[in-house]
Amino acid sequence: MKRILIPIDGSEYANRAVAMGVEMARVFNCDVVLLHAISVIMPIYGMGSGSLPPRQEISDYANDMQKLAEVKLQEAKRTFGDLADRVETVVVPGEASRVILEYVEEHDVDMVIMGSHGLGSMVDRLLTGSVTTKVLHHIQKPVLVVKS
Fold this sequence. Notes:
- It is a single chain.
- It contains 5 helices and 5 strands; from the N terminus they run E-H-E-H-E-H-E-H-H-E.
- Helix 3 (96-106) runs parallel beside helix 5 (131-138).
- The chain is an alpha/beta fold and 148 residues long.
- The protein has a single domain (3-48, 55-146), classed as HUPs (Rossmann fold, 3-Layer(aba) Sandwich).
- It has helices spanning 12-28, 55-78, 96-106, 122-128, 131-138; strands spanning 3-7, 31-38, 87-93, 111-115, 143-146.
- Helix content is 45%, strand content 20%.
């Protein structure tokens, strides 16, 4: 095993996946990619007003999400301690399961380590399923699901 992908979202479940990733990276002496998918959808604006937010607000929102993702990634990277130089961080806009699947397909990844639940809303999970479930159903690589 040469490269592990760990999608993170700042949740406790993702933190557990990172902790497992640290152990796996030590055992297999491999590289790690920490990936954070950021939603390109802004929260509901105006609640029924039918108007869209000004372009600057959209840009500011996207910049804020990018900065927050980078902070989460750097916090997770520090967890690797002396292995941190073997950890790459990536921020990709888009829906998390799609971003993960595309990243695995386009890059040399041997395994994915994921938490069993992230920060998605309960309604979203009930209607569309969890990110982990979607990835498990469509991926062609091994996935280690870390549960509590």
